[in-house]
Amino acid sequence: MEHSKRGLLPMRHGIKLFMKQSPKTDKEHKRMSNIPYASALGSIQYVVQCTRPNVAYALSVTSRYQACAEKAHWDAVKSIRKYLKRTKDMFLIYGGGELILEGYSDASFRSDDNDAKSQSNFVFKLNGGVVA
Fold first, then answer.
1. Phi/psi at 122 (nearest 5 deg)?
2. Average pLDDT in the 46-75 region?
3. Each residue's pLDDT tens digit, 4-28
4. What is the full DSSP assignment across the chain?
5. Is the separation of the CB atoms in 103 and 123 below 8 Å?
6. What integer pLDDT is reported at residue 118 of this predicted model?
7. Which residues does residue 51 pair with via DSSP β-bridges, in sequence order?
8. Structural domain boundaries of the chain?
9. Mean of the pLDDT values across residues 101-129?
10. Quick one: pLDDT at residue 3?
């Protein structure tokens, strides 16, 4: 990972976003009010639902901060958008042979530093391509 180029993943490894990073001064609030944070998340949500489920986790993390977004949160959203732009010519291939459905799940205990809640998620693949 130390030699990887920035933007090759939808979310940088080890990024920590917190509620306490929210704007504190009127100037910071005004600056963030001019940034289309919610609109960008909506655009990414559309892409996730239609063609790119691989960025769903990064979207879910950044969506938690719509009401209190700060520069660090906006940088994370820009990272997702950069990744989508860089990988726009990639696509899923499901193949024409026998249908093979695979499912995976994962959970983490108290992994959300904001409220100490656990998280879980899943992925289903059809012939090697993610479908859910």
1. -150, 165
2. 88
3. 455 678 887 777 787 777 777 888 8
4. -TTPPTTSSSS-TT----GGGS--SHHHHHHHHTS-HHHHHHHHHHHHHHT-GGGHHHHHHHHTTGGG--HHHHHHHHHHHHHHHHTTT------SSS--EEEEEEEESS--TTT---EEEEEEEETTEE--
5. yes
6. 75
7. none
8. 1-89, 92-132
9. 80
10. 46
